[in-house]
Amino acid sequence: MSGERTARAVVPCRACLSGEDLDWLGGRSVSLALDLTTVVETVPGPAAPAAAGGWPGQVWGFLRGRIPGLGPNPPVLNVHSDAPAASGLSSSTALIVALFQAYTDAFAPSPGIPVATLAQWAYEFEFAHFNGGGMDHLAVIEGDALLLEGRPTGLPAVLERRAFPDDWAVVVVDSATRKDTSDHIRVVRAQLAGRDPALAAYLKEADQASADVWEAMGAGDLDGVGDAMDRAHNAMRDHQGMSTPVLEDLREAALRSAGLRLKLSGAGGGGALVGVCRAADQEPIATALRQALGELRPAARVLTTRAAAGAGARSANGEAR
After folding, report:
1. What is the CATH number of domain 168-305?
2. What is the radius of gyration, based on Cα positions, of the chain?
């Protein structure tokens, strides 16, 4: 593996503020990159045996077909993530993108692989495993807030992008119940093929909620964002059964104790809820939530986070470009 350079990839996670599944069903969705990051660093020295079935070995195998001169086994890695796993915050995609970025930064010929190509490769790699959409890949690479238009195959179109307001922040409630989306996409694709009216109702309401989230964000209307996210969650729950009694209890507790409206991020029955608040209120809200949830669900975690730049805005050593 000649030409190896030490590389450090830093990739944010993402919250879906509205429009789960619309990145491949069609319609609008809103993503927001968060500074709960996944970091992958290559370690110089002998290569590691390829991990059968593991993402490092599989991503390396994918790249061997596209970058000449890669050896049979990937380098040794240091990996760390702040994002809770299996939570609907795209921690898996963040790891996959970080692997692609670290490997190509360390081994691809200069000047490296364009960011758009990395996004396409990461999408193709994950689509082969899960048959899903490309919101997550664009969200963690582009960063900040994106309004996306879904496509049946391929990456969604970026309709608009904007910086999240500096005086806003995000509170994440990790429910400590893991998502299980192993069968979700197959079921929704069957609904689509069968023209299920529940799916049609979801698509209409979620698409409108996404438009309203985006408009309110641009206007600096925090209440409007919260209202539209609330409607997006209700559409997920009522038409597609994506919520659970545990998640609904957490939502009620958050509204009662801290006045914060929470929305499930990502499809599936479990994971994390997200709410947008003023940055000045974030810590008091988090404190109130921890006290309330300590009695209701002690295993739940409350995380404070802010909007983040994407992986495409960082160089090989992890610094902003």
Report:
1. 3.30.70.890
2. 19
Domain with CATH 3.30.70.890 in the chain: 168-305
Separation of alpha carbons 59 and 97, rounded Å: 9
Q: Which helix (H) or strand (E) holds 149?
A: strand 145-149
Which of helix, strand or coil describes residue 79? Answer: strand
Query: Can you say how many angstroms the Cα of residue 195 is from the centroid of all Cα atoms in its chain?
Result: 28
Residue with tokens 């995000």: 170
User: Which residues does 187 contact at the CB level (< 8 Å), separation at least 6?
Assistant: none
Q: How confident is the model at residue 48 (pLDDT cuts 50, 70, 90)?
A: low
- Is the pLDDT confidence value at 194 over 60? yes
The secondary structure of residue 2, as a DSSP letter, is: T
CB 150 within 8 A of CB 162: no
pLDDT digits 0-9 by tens, 31-47: 999 999 999 999 887 77
The tens digit of pLDDT for each residue in 147-182 reads 999 999 899 999 999 999 999 999 999 999 988 777
What does the block give as tokens for 24? 């491949």
Strands 157-162 and 263-264: unpaired
All residues at 6 or more sequence positions from 140 whose CB lies less than 8 Å from its CB, including other chains: 11, 12, 13, 14, 33, 90, 93, 94, 97, 310, 311
Instruction: Fold for 8-162, please state it.
Output: Ribosomal Protein S5; domain 2 (3.30.230)
Q: How much is the pTM?
A: 0.93
